[in-house]
Amino acid sequence: MNEYVEIVIRSVCVLAAFLVLPLVVGQTEHKVMAHMQGRLGPMEAGRFHGWAQLIADGVKFAQKEDVVPLAADKRVFRVAPALGIVSYLLALAVIPFGPDFFGANVPGGLVWLLAVSGIGTLGTLMAGWSSGNKYSLLGGMRTAAQLVSYELPLILVCASFAIAAGSLSMVGIAQAWNPWWLIWQLPGAIVFLVAATAELQRPPFDMPVADSELVMGPYTEYTGLRFALFLLAEYAGIVVMSFLLAALWLGAWAGPFPHSLGWLWMLIKGGIFAFVIIWIRVAWPRLREDQLQRVAWLGLVPIALLQLAITAVGVVVTSQ
Question: In the chain, N or C: fewer CB atoms in 10 Å?
Fold first, then answer.
């Protein structure tokens, strides 16, 4: 196959997955929350099990007026919602769904993914800064504090997986995986799940958008499709983080007939983690800001450092 044709095909596949999977996660969240909290509304649209709820939400956002506050930094205000979408699209491109099924096999794919996924959080910070609203500014400052606190344990546990695999390539890490990692790297997987949930500003770590305290935080002044882009970026972030954890801790495509069904195992594993993130939102109340920082610095960071030390010692011992 011509090299350029292959690049186009891989790019189209990544784009198709990016357009479909966040919507699936959004629809799943509607249904899971409806069942777990006894919500009737999301089960009515379209009659059968509320299948048209997501369509109804899209029509609702499209009908709303696009308002830009007079006091806002208009350029930054308009650009901010797009950053989350673009960053997670670039991150999804390096996640492997099979031995030869990926958008790009970048030698430092893990570094690339962590770098570009952080841009989405900066979009939230830009939204809070540019809105000309004090509630939005406070939400943006909380976003910055949360980003600094939870990025560190997230990177530390990813470094643990990279050391264990001896590679920074996402494909290389998946190929080096073995079932022993399910126990050996379990603390790192738990830290990753908690830190990723906080990075996505999902409950119980949604202090930047705490509606009972800050109206809607950085998104207070956003309406219509611009507000919908922030919600879509959140779902895209769930997709990326779930697949990243599945690739690091569960071996990505590892399973029966990996060369033909690897993509299916990856979807199942990522779907399980996405469900857990949704479940956490339903089951846990919001933390206070001081509790958020305590969880990061007194809980996750020491565990991540311990996991990193155990991995380093284990790699040195097994290599001799």
Answer: C
